[in-house]
Amino acid sequence: MKTIDKNFLWGVATSSYQIEGAAKEGGRSESIWDNFCKIPGKIANNDNGDIACDHYHKYKDDVSLMKNLGVKAYRFSVSWPRIIPEGVGESNQEGIQFYIDLIDELLKNDIEPWATLYHWDLPHVLQEKGGWQNRDIVKWFEAYADVVVNAFKGRVKNFIILNEPSVVAYQGHFDGTHAPGIMSKDATLKATHHQNLVIGNTFSFIKEHWPDLNVGSSYTLFPVYSIGKTEEDIRARETIDALWNKNFFDPLFLKKYPDIFEREFEEIMQDGDLDIIAQPLDFIGVQHYAPMYVKGCDNEIEATLVAPPENSPVTDMGWPYSPEAFHECLVGMKENYKNPKIYITENGAAYKDKISEDGLIHDADRVRYYKEYLSQVMRAMKDGVNIRGYFAWSFLDNFEWAWGYDKRFGLVYVDFETQERVPKDAYYWYKDFITKINETN
Ligand code: GCO
Among 41, 47, 364, 396, which lies 20 to 30 A Cα-Cα from 403? Predict the structure, then answer.
């Protein structure tokens, strides 16, 4: 525990659509997720985020559970359709006020707010104008960021621009399992490039006006392994590694797209785009869950994701349990991308939780996951990776996208019928862990 100093930031994370509910309250317009949830068969049990954890009304109880957990930071996301219901133009004071109230409650409890500007809930009206495929999103987003940062002035110092752009590109625009449910390689590459531009442009915009703010963006990191050894499998590995990892980090740190897609991006890019993208972000938010396995196939990108090798232990998502993979991608950031300042803005696991007869949730698998994954974080720090904080995903069980309410990632169990919250064993384990670390410093 010696590698962790007292300034290391311990936190928990959530996102707006996954927990807020109150979908039709406070002047909020529809997001692409409200819309996507209406398409039969897209979401398990045809669930949606209309009510979710009702955090919109229960935020004070939730902050008090955070306080009791002992975390010093809370990462939440701001819902664009609450702030600017028409996507661009007039802002909505009632939506802004919800976040101001939440932030004030956090500050009152000595919890530092970390605001993500975009965690996937694009206003539906902007999707009608092309969404992430329309380059105008760079300007729409700048105007939105301007409203949020101005409104939070004096209260919030830390901003995360986008959450996991690779998921938006791949699942939102290639395999269609996430909103907006598009399936095209061309759309995927456009969504990739436009998100990179949004990150670079928004960073420059915020820093120009508010140089003291701490501004970064969050990316999910996956080591990618190929199941087979044929030439096609090896190329599939490179393709998927580019689509999920390198298409974001290479332009940011190395000012180029990976060779495998360079030509295709040239057709989308305009002069000067790489200068806009390659900004010295104040930090990189790293999110990690599991490695990926791939093999060659005859779809548009000649690659597909496949199940992990037989006998691999998996979480309830079917994702391989592999703490070493976390270490591998953290060290990769140091070796390939200039050892940036890193906050781990998400890490955690879904398991099937049940309330036991004693009324508690004994989630031993999740406790083990946190223990072993955190020990890899510390190992990476010993190896010189520049990690400054860790946010567990997630604070509450919540709406897990295409899986609806079937998958539980929370440190706190939520009964979605009654909205009762029950801290799980992992919550008490994390509390204890943070306390002990703080005592040894
Ligand atoms: C993410 C997602 C979260 C998911 C979590 C588990 O950023 O990956 O933003 O919203 O719930 O990753 O799948």
Answer: 364
